Amino acid sequence: MTESSDPARAAGPAAFIRSPLDAAAGLFLICLAAVVLHQIRGLDAGSLRSFGPAMLPRGLAVILGASGIALVLMSVFRRDGSVLERWSIRGPFFILGSVLAFAFTIRVFGLAVAGPLAMVVGAYADPDARLKETLIFSVVLTAVCVVLFRYVLGLSIPILKMP
Amino acid sequence: MDSIISNLALGFSTALTFQNLALCFVGCLIGTLIGVLPGVGPIATIAMLLPITFGLDPTGALIMLAGIYYGAQYGGSTTAILVNIPGEATSVVTVLDGHEMAKQGRAGAALGIAAIGSFIAGTVSTLVIAALGLPLTKLAQLFGPAEYFSLMIMGLVFAMVLARGSLLRAFAMIVLGLVLSTIGTDLETGEERLTFGIERLSDGLEFVVLAMGVFGFAEIIRNLENPEARDVVRGSIGPLLPTREEFRQSAMPIARGTFLGALLGILPGNGAVLGPFASYSVEKKLAKDPRRFGRGAIEGVAGPEAANNAGAQTAFIPLLTLGIPPNAVMALMVGAMTIHGIIPGPQVMTKAPSLFWGMVASMWIGNLMLLIINLPMVGLWVRLLKVPYRLLFPAILLFCCIGIYSINSSETDVIFTAVFGLFGYALLKFGFEPAPLLLGFVLGKLMEEKLRQALILSRGSFMTFVERPVSLGLLVVAAVLIVVALLPAIRKSRDEVFTE
Amino acid sequence: MKILAKLAFAAAALVAGSAAAQTYPAKPITMIVPFAAGGPTDVVARIVTEHMSRTLGQQIVIENVGGAGGTTGTTRASQAGNDGYTIMMGHMGTHGAAPALYPNLKYDPSKDFEPVGLAAGTPILIVAKKAFPAQDLKGFVDYLKANGDKVNQAHAGVGSVSHSTGILLTSQVGTKTTQVPYTGTGPALNDLVSGQVDFMTDQIVNVAEQIRAGTIRAYAIATPSRSPALPDVPTTKEAGLPQYEVSAWNAIFAPKGTPAEVVTKLNDALVKALADEGTRKRLLDLGAVLPEKNEQTSAWLGDFVAKEVARWTPVLKAAK
């Protein structure tokens, strides 16, 4: 089972939830299941003898939601609760920003722009990012990638485009 | 027996010409390279290299392309171990203990045992192909949709066993993986499901997109959270090769992994993906202390890696003996053969024996070359981990982005990877493991297809799964496995009850 | 004044356009193949463009953009720049069957493309498992009529060639079989060889070797004349189903508005490739059917596409 932590810490504001981690995880699954059920609401499930397109996703979403409910129930009854860890904002923000920056520039400007941009944005996910160092490194690495992907492997990646 | 020797002699005489040796080497080298680069898979590369092979004779061209294919399997393990990114479904398992070993400064041992295990598996499966290729094909023909479905059920049970922690959580992740696998166009009606109106999703999610998001990016975000733990290897990096003790521990897992991988690889429905999962589950069940698994157990690298390579090798059997490609890479090999005027089919073996046996022989030569290429590289790879993380992670990001983009020249895929990175981070925060999710995803696609085919063929009768003996046998094995998996948990909770 | 300015602008644009067309191609050309590498369309594209690149003096780079029965790549090609540096290899599915199969299709096969020329078609064969209880096509048709949905018909997924041509066959025979969908030709063929399913229709490249090896049986080939690759297989006309004539054709298209000079240059290069002995042989070895001289023009392809869309739409819509 999940690593148990100090039971005293588990007694949060909602004291009857012994394991906030399980409760949150369960709610997360229930939400996912709800999204799935909502998305496929217009599709035909068919019958057990002849499946329709919605049969499996719907059945699976129900099982997923049930697992979520089970986790929530467990969070109330188990003795060894775990707390929910803190979520960081900086890491996800810059890492995903970096990937998205790459996605939105690769076909417009090409790798020569998208590569360094992605690396510089990504580097700020680390609080002690150094701009100059990252910039130089990113340009060098992008050049390496151009040679590697375009010329050694021959993949069709745009290198430099002027919109 | 004589015929095997004379056939192999013919094969080696074909494969050992200077040109074919050189092509095999180039193929292995390129394969290792693309395997190491996250995202860039053998499919994109082989497609790009097809025109280059126009000038070659068919045997040479296929030897090179085959080299790329199994070279990529070797290279993929390297990335899985070093940076926690599985490039293909088959290296998901390698991540579990391989990356754990790397964190403990045992990257050298993990990479070494992966290469050696793969080589041994490659050698054995080359012999299997040579000796039993044809009869095994007939065996695989017993597998219809019902049998595949039962096989997939067995695979899902493996996924339960894979779990490190709570069975309920592992189960939920498998189900979530299955849900994700239903995204896309419905097989029968062509209706779109769960695509959120996004056109790119109409063919379903790409495995690499999901894997790179939930494993790779999520891992980077988590590493950045705790600055002390983020440099992959702190302190000494340990010996570059496995110790004698580690070899001893790995011997039997390699043997069992080879057997499982080779057997599953023959199935023409891409059974090879099950090999590493099956091997991992078996090793975990056989281990004296299963808790070591997921915390850097070398058996958890040795067995699955052997299974992976054995399966990659025997996956050629349906292609070479039946002319039917079991997976996307093999379908590409069909294209390559067709472009060279050799249409794969049941008669390739008799009509073009030097091509057939030359390829078989070159597989073994290629494996030897890969061992020679990879072992000296271990030192280099391990030193790579010494690069400060603040430089390493942006570089990984860039390679991942380029790799994902190159699969379909699609920036939408890159965006999806970002989304799944966030999703994977959330899963980690909620205490879920990504491995069962990925296995559920991989098996889900095949499972729904086979389930519905089986039910269409049986006109809606579920009895088809127990009426067919092979299918019934697989279901029984799955049932036994699940009891074995659940027993310790049940016993444990009873213990807990008693201690209260 | 305004009209004058407009005219001057148009003239300038024309001059600039034709100047660009004269130097065309000045850089590599991208050809989008809307299917995965290694498939029949991809193979045809690669063989044809290899010779075309030599004629044009610039490499034609193939970019495989697979997905949604080829419509993803085709949509992308229809939205690409019309300077002649992006062209595509279209196909019976993308430029014939797609409008009927995909209600939200983002392109019109006739209106959004400049036809360049027909490259090669791959004949369709009616194949069945070895143990199928019919001696010839007549017996096969009778069996279908008598047994209807007791017969299992495989296809490689909605939108695939085997799906469309299979529906065409059953609608012409006037029966409804049980359709078993697969994800691709490989798995479908595998189950046909092992006898899990009864029959399917598919392209010659995929099934020729299995027929030669006797692992499956062929009832007819849906072309006007027999294929040199399988001389023993009768045509549908000979075997008594003359209306079933269909081939998975592949043709080159350019996005709408590509200058006529560029289209002509591309067509010339294609015609030269189709006249080249080496290229012909490689295509014929695959069992492909090459277009006659009069079928190689851009105009012919334009008419052909319109006819194909008109032919597939009612058949496929009726089957939905």
Could you walk me through the main structural features you see in this protein, from its secondary elements to its overall organization?
The complex is a heterotrimer of chains A (163), B (500) and C (320). Chain A is built from six helices and no strands. By secondary structure, chain A is mainly alpha-helical. In chain A, α2 packs antiparallel against α3 (55-77), α4 packs antiparallel against α5 and α5 (111-123) packs antiparallel against α6. Chain A is flat. Chain A starts with 6 loop residues before the first helix and ends in an 11-residue tail after the last helix. Mean pLDDT of chain A is 83; it is low at 1-13. Chain B has one domain (2-499). Chain B contains 21 helices and two strands. In chain B, strands 1-2 form a two-stranded antiparallel sheet. In chain B, a hairpin with a 6-residue loop joins β1 and β2 (192-193). Residues 494-500 of chain B have low confidence and may be disordered. Chain C has 320 residues and is of the alpha/beta class. Chain C contains twelve helices and nine strands. In chain C, β1, α2 and β2 form a beta-alpha-beta unit. In chain C, α2 crosses α10 (260-275), α4 packs parallel to α12 (298-319) and α6 crosses α12. Chains in contact: A-B, B-C. Chains B and C meet through α3, α14 and α19 of B and α2, β2, β6, α7 and α8 of C.
Largest sheet: number of strands, sense, barrel closure of chain B:
2 strands, antiparallel
Count, helices of chain A: 6
Low-confidence stretches of chain B: 494-500
Specify the helix fraction band of chain B.
Answer: over 70%
The profile of the biggest β sheet of chain A is: none
Morphology call of chain A: flat
Mean pLDDT value of chain A: 83
